[in-house]
Amino acid sequence: MALREILSLDNPVFSCYLFYVSLLTVKLMVMTLLTGLQRFRKQVVSNQEDTVLGAEIIFNDPDVERVRRAHLNDLENIPPFMIIALAYLFTDPSYKVASNLFRIFTASRFLHTLIYAIYVLPQPTRAILFWIGFLVTWYMAIQGLLIFNY
Predict the structure, then answer these.
(1) Are residues 113 and 38 in contact, defined by beta-carbon separation less than 8 angstroms?
(2) Which DSSP letter does residue 120 get?
(3) CB 113 within 8 A of CB 27
(4) Residue 76 CB partners (closer than 8 Å, separation 6+)
(5) Residue 15 CA neighbour count, 13 Å, CB half
(6) What ranges in the chain are assigned the alpha helix state H?
(7) Which of 84, 94, 98 is nearest to 144 (CA)?
(8) Burial class (CB in 10 A: 0-12, 13-18, 19+), 78
C-alpha cells in the first residue's frame, strides 16, 4: 500500500488512528487541567509567584502528587503509543485488529487514570491496566520490527 493510501482519510485504519490519537491528546490536556484544579482546590502551589493568591508552597501534597503522577504516567505511555501506532499503520493491519488495539489502549489509559487519580483502587488493578496498554504498544512495535527488518 502506498504512502498516500495509508495516510488517507479514505483508509479506515488511518481515520480510526486519528480518532484515538485525538481522544488521547484531549485526555493529556485534561490531565493538565485536573492537576491545576487539584492545586487550586487544595490551595497548593510550587512557585513563589503563585502565592500572591494566598496559596501555600507545598511540593508533596498527596492529592496533587497523585494526579501529577497519573499525568506523568500518561506522558510516558501515550506518546510512544502514538508513534508506534503510526508505524503500525504501514504494516497494513486489518481494520478489525487495528481498531481493537487502539480501543484497548485508549480504554486502558482512561481506566488507569480513573483508578489512579480519581477513584483509587488497590493494586494490582492499576498495574493490570498499565500492562494492557504497554503490551498493546509492544505488540504493534514487534509487528513493525517483523515487517520492516533491515
Answers:
(1) no
(2) -
(3) yes
(4) none
(5) 8
(6) 3-6, 12-42, 62-89, 95-113, 125-147
(7) 84
(8) buried
Q: With contact defined as beta carbons under 8 Å apart, do 109 and 77 qualify?
A: yes
3-147 has which CATH code? 1.20.120.550
pLDDT digit string (tens) for 98-132?
999 999 999 999 999 999 988 999 999 999 999 99
- 56: helix, coil or strand? strand
User: Can you tell me which residue has the cell 493510501?
Assistant: 5
Question: Residue 134 corresponds to which amino acid?
Answer: F
pTM of the predicted structure, to 2 decimals: 0.90
Which triple of cell numbers denotes residue 6? 495509508
Type of residue found at 70: A
Q: Please tell me the distance from the alpha carbon of residue 13 to that of residue 142, in angstroms, as a whole number.
A: 18
Q: Which amino acid is at 74?
A: D
